[in-house]
Write a structure and sequence with these properties.
2-methylcitrate dehydratase PrpD; 60s Ribosomal Protein L30, Chain: A; globular; 9 strands; three-stranded antiparallel β-sheet; alpha+beta; 2 domains
Amino acid sequence: MRTYPPCDFEDDPAGKLAEFAANAKYEDLPPAVIDRAKMALLDTLAVIIGGSGRNSSPVAAAFAKRYENQAADARVMVYGYKCPAPIAAVPNGTFGRALDYGDCHVTGGHMSEYLIPTLFTSLNLGDRPFTGKDFILAFAVGSEWGTRHHTSYNFQYHSTEVPAEAGWVQSTAALAKFLGLDKQQFWNAMGLAYTACTFGEDQKNNEGSEGARLAHGFVSSTSIKACLLAKEGMTGPHSIYFGEGGILRHIIWDDVDPSVLTDDLGKRWMFEDPHMSLTIKPYAACKFTHSCIYCMLRLRELHNIDHRDIADIHCIVAPNAGPVLFPSRWEPKSMGDLMYGLPYTQIQAAMYGDVQLDAFTDERLTNNEEMFSLLHLVHYSIDDSKDIFDGYTVEVTLKDGTKYSYTDDGIPGSVRNPMSWEQLEKKYWQCVPYSAVALAKEKLETVVEMCKDLENVKDLNELMDNLVP
C-alpha cells in the first residue's frame, strides 16, 4: 500500500489543478480537443434522448415534476418541465446513464454523461448567455481533470476495487469553469463535491440496481449545489488528494502516480491523448462487453454462423472485466444483468447480429426463455496480457466440432478505429425512437447541425429549445 508524507493542504495537487482550470482559455485548446467536445455532445444528447423513457428515467422525471415552476431556473431535458436546477439535474443526469450507452475514456472512465447534463441544466445560472465556445472550454477542463484524476490511480485497471467512480470530478470542474469561478472558488467547489460524492458507489453495479443510473443525477445535482455555494463564499476541504482523508490515501494498491495529476498541465490534454482518448460506444451495453460483441459479430459475418449450431462460446478477457462476469449475469433478474452481462450480450450478438437498444426492453427481460436458455454456452477465462477494453478474443465451437476464433482488431469508436460523424449520426437517430416524448424531426435535425457548428452557437439555450417539446 502506498504511503505519502504529510502535506500542507495548500500544497495539495488540487490547488494546481484549480489554478489551471480557472485560467484555461478557449484559445489554448487544440483542434482535436474542440472536435472531441463537439462529438461528445452529440453522442451524449443522443443517449439522453434515448434514455429519457428507459429504466429509472420516468421515475426521476416524476420526482422533478413535483417541483415544477418553483424557482424554475432549469429545464428537464426531453420532458420540458421547469424547476430548480438542483432538482432538474436529477432526471437530466439519470437520462445520460439510463442506457449505459455514453462514451467512455480508456483511463478516465465514464465522463460526458456526468458533465454534459450538469452543464445543460445550468444554462440559466450565469449572468450572461453561455456560448458553444463556453461549453467546449468547460467540457475540456472537466474532462482533463477527470482523466488525470482517474489515471493517477489506475482506476480502469482496478475498477472493481475502487470505492467510487469519480464522476463528480469532471461534472464539478466543468461547471465551475462554466460559471467562471476563480481559483479559490474552484478549489472550494471541488472540495465540497468531494465531501458529498465519494465512496459507497460500487455496490449498485454489483446488484444491477437502478442506482447505477440515478447516481449520475445525484452527482449532477451535487455539482450544481457545490459550485453555487462556492461562488457565494462557502469553503470546502482543499487537500482532497493528500489529506488524511484524501483520495490517494484510500487507494490500497501500489501502481499509483500522483505526478499524473499535474505534469504538463495546459500543455498536454490527456483526455484527448491519441493513445487514451474518449471512445464512443457502438453497442448499447457496458463497455467491458464490447470487445467480445465485436468479435462475435465478426465471426458471425465471416463464417455465416447460425446461433443454433453453437455448442460453446469462450471469451478471453482482461482482468478488469469483472463487472460483466458476476454469476448473476448468467441468471438475469434485472435490466442491469442484461446491460452489464457478458453472456447475454454474446447471445444477443450471435442471434441478431447487433446489440442495440431493442436488446434491452422489459419484454426481453421477462419473456426471453430461448435466449436465457443459451447463456450457459458462454464461458470465459482471464488473460493478464489483454488490454482494458480492447483486444479480447472469442472462440466459438460448433456442434459438429468446428472451431473459429477472432481477436478484436479495432472496435468501431475505439482509439484504433475512431467513429466518424456519419457513424455518430446513425447512432443518434437509432436513439431517437426511444425518447419519452416525441420531438419534432426538424428540432432533432437542428440539434445535429448545432453540435457540428458548436463553436459558432451564441446561446446554448437555443440548442436546449430543440431538446424539449
